[in-house]
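Deliverable D2.4 — example input (structure tokens):
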């Protein structure tokens, strides 16, 4: 509006030409002509009234167009919103498809305007558009869960790994003992098997197990993590340092998991990692089935509709965990790895090589080419370490079995106590019924005895009244009446003439 005021001032007060005004305000002569023509059509006086503000001036120069009286069918904006998530789909393509079905429908500009206004009702900010099957966001939750050792009573914190798909928000989580490289890699493998496919990109945090050196442009990945990504054909795009919005999906997923899963387990006590993961899987199914608030469906239905068809199939061979090391070949053309020596071709003596170590093999590379591959030599320490791992696993299995048996025993004990209580209650009820019957019988006997005594007393009284030469006396009570009864002899009872 400032330029319009300047155009009117230069034209009416100074009488400048349109080209001069255009050069002064740095605009085209056509724009200046349009402003002056609109002022003439609106009948705008100059100088302008003092009460004419910028909003009123804009309304007079650019009056809103009258709404069309023709009602045009609107498309299903939810379908348009979901279709835009697919790769290569644009608003123009969707509008063309809409016009094929509705020839008298909205034009392209109105179509885009109506969609943007509908989209604003969903959320106040839409910073990222997630294509189905494109990105997987991974991170660890800040909250941990304590696991109690059944043998020693020691409580050990378990870490919670969370993975979220970008388009559908379908979530996976599991508990591991640490955030170290073996657990980090294993969690990725199990997450992909849970989803049943692989995305094109992984977006992790700058965890040391995944990213050796964080960088805005060229982050340095951990060699093992890079090897995992190559095995599944995935590109890794770490989030920028101190930029949580780069992985907002998993940040929100961690929040949901903390509120709807970990908060529900706060009163439970776990004695093994497997027991904790079983409880997590049960609650995870409830989270993925919870309906959305602003969109129809849930995470599971959105996954089946969008992400699952777009995921790439997993390789036939599961990834085998391997660690990478940098070593230098000795003058005896041997490489030392964990106290063992592995030979390479003699022409590679004194060369720097990359070593890939798995559970079974050692592979040695130079400039990306494998120059040697040998089986790992097992020493007594390795055998002892393996035996220790097996013993620990057996001990953990024994603890789990003992916990299950203890729970079963407690259940049986509770059942026996319930049975004894029920039997005692039944016996007490029977005794109460018998006591009631005895009281009723005693009361009935007392009533019968009282009635009989009353009848005998009436008969004795009548006999005394009608005895010969006996003078009737009024009825008496107490001992006097009893003495009179004693003087009467029943064989002498006769009716007077």
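Example output (designed residues):
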């Amino acid at each position: 509006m400032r330029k319009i005021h300047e155009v009117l001032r230069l034209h009416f007060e100074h009488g400048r030409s349109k080209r001069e005004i255009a050069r002064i305000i740095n605009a085209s002569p056509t724009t200046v002509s349009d402003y002056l023509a609109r002022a003439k059509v609106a009948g705008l006086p100059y100088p302008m009234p003092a009460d004419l503000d910028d909003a009123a001036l804009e309304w007079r120069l650019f009056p809103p167009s009258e709404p069309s009286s023709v009602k045009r069918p609107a498309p299903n904006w939810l379908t348009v919103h979901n279709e835009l998530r697919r790769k290569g789909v644009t608003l123009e393509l969707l509008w063309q498809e809409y016009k094929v079905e509705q020839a008298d429908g909205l034009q392209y500009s109105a179509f885009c305007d109506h969609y943007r206004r509908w989209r604003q009702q969903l959320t106040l900010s839409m910073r990222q558009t997630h294509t189905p099957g494109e990105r997987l966001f991974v991170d660890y939750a800040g909250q941990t869960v304590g696991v109690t050792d059944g043998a020693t009573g020691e409580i050990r914190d378990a870490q919670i790994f969370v993975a979220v798909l970008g388009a559908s928000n379908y979530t996976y989580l599991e508990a591991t003992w640490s955030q170290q490289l073996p657990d980090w890699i294993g969690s990725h493998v199990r997450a992909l098997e849970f989803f049943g496919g692989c995305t094109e990109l992984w977006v992790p945090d700058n965890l040391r197990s995944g990213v050796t050196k964080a960088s805005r442009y060229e982050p340095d990945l951990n060699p093992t993590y890079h090897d995992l990504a190559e095995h599944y054909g995935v590109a890794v795009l770490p989030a920028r340092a101190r930029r949580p919005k780069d992985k907002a999906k998993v940040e929100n997923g961690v929040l949901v998991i903390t509120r709807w899963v970990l908060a529900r387990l706060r009163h439970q006590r776990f004695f093994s990692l497997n027991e904790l993961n079983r409880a997590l899987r049960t609650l995870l199914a409830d989270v993925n089935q919870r309906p959305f608030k602003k969109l129809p469906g849930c995470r599971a239905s959105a996954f089946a509709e969008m992400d699952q068809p777009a995921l790439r199939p997993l390789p036939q061979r599961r990834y085998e965990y391997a660690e990478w090391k940098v070593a230098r070949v000795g003058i005896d053309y041997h490489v030392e790895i964990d106290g063992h020596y592995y030979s390479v071709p003699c022409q590679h003596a004194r060369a720097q090589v990359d070593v890939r170590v798995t559970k079974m093999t050692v592979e040695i590379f130079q400039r990306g080419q494998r120059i040697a591959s040998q089986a790992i030599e097992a020493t007594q320490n390795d055998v002892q370490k393996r035996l220790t791992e097996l013993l620990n696993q057996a001990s953990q299995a024994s603890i789990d079995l003992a916990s299950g048996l203890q729970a079963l025993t407690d259940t049986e004990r509770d059942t026996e106590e319930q049975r004894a209580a029920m039997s005692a209650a039944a016996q007490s009820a029977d005794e109460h019924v018998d006591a009631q019957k005895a009281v009723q019988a005693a009361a009935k006997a007392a009533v019968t005895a009282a009635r009989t005594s009353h009848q005998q007393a009436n008969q004795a009284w009548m006999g005394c009244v009608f005895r010969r030469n006996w003078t009737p006396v009024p009825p008496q009570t107490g001992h006097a009446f009893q003495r009179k009864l004693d003087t009467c002899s029943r064989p002498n009872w006769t009716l007077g003439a």
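The radius of gyration is 48 Å.
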